[in-house]
Amino acid sequence: MKRLAVSILFLASVVFADNFKTISGKEYKNARVSRVEPDGIVLITKSGISKLYFTELPKEVQERFHYDAQRASAYSAEQNAAVQVQKQQAEAMRQKAEATQTNNEQLAKERALGETEFVAMQGIAKRVQDFLTSTAPITKSTVMVPGKPTSDGGYQIMIISSKPFVVPASDNIPASRDPRKAWMIFATGAAAAYTMDSPVPIKAIAFGDTDTLKQKVYYTLDMAIARDMQQKLKADSIDNNTAYSMIKAGLTKISTSDGSQ
């Protein structure tokens, strides 16, 4: 019976308009109670929909709607938690959309490198290859500049030979008398010199050969090391042995077929 009486009271509140005045003095005239929640009432007036919290209403209004402070506090905490979840979901969606937009912009940028830059980079690759063919014909050399950047946004110039360069001759043999060492020096110097005017940043030289390519083994050399070596050779401040040592010390294995590093 008590529950029925409360239901009738709430129904009457919804149907009939009433006046409400907050503790601070703000009035809501001819307001209809649309909904009663544990922490307050939702009113409909001519100006719109408003929620009045029981904490800002007089004690008689609190008693009229059976305000329970403990229940209201739990309800408010639950509502705040739900709002926080919604905010987190919205932020996650925003970040995902932003990441998608960034990725799309990057893809568009990569595609936009297009014909002019591609032709220029192929021209660089051909000049390096022609130089190696004429200057270091000890082995057939193929030079390429891939059309897409690496993860750091830079490009690589790839130099592939028909003989393994990763098993050089004895270090006791002077580089000037070792064709394989000489080839490495010529290839590094040519790549450093001819990529200076590249329209896109070429940050490294990727070396490979037809034998190791079957196992997908590559070695990279930071272009800064290559240019430092090339400038020092040009200025005669280092000899071939030192130049080769700089290259060898800077080589980094980047991948193998079995995933080892």
What does this structure look like?
- By secondary structure, this protein is of the alpha+beta class.
- It has two domains: 2-67, SH3 type barrels (Roll), CATH 2.30.30; 114-255, no CATH class.
- Helices cover 49% and strands 21% of the residues.
- The protein has eight helices and nine strands.
- The strands form two sheets. The protein has a five-stranded mixed sheet with strand order 5-6-7-8-9. Strands 1-2-3-4 form a four-stranded antiparallel sheet.
- The radius of gyration is 38 Å and the shape is rod-shaped.
- Residues 1-15 have low confidence and may be disordered.
Average pLDDT, to the nearest integer?
80
Largest sheet: 5 strands, mixed
Individual helix count = 8
Question: What is the CA–CA distance across the termini?
Answer: 78 Å
C-alpha geometry: rod-shaped
The count of DSSP E runs of length 2 or more, i.e. the number of strands, is 9
**In the residues, how many domains can be counted?**
2
Return Rg in Å: 38 Å
Question: Which regions have little confidence, pLDDT < 50, spanning 5+ residues?
Answer: 1-15
Order of helices and strands: HEEEEHHHEEHEHEHHE
Specify the helix fraction band.
Answer: 40-55%
Going across the major beta sheet, what is the strand order? Answer: 5-6-7-8-9
Strand percentage? 15-25%
Helix-strand makeup class: alpha+beta
Keywords:
261 residues; alpha+beta; SH3 type barrels; 2 domains; five-stranded mixed beta sheet; four-stranded antiparallel beta sheet; 8 helices; 49% helix; disordered N terminus
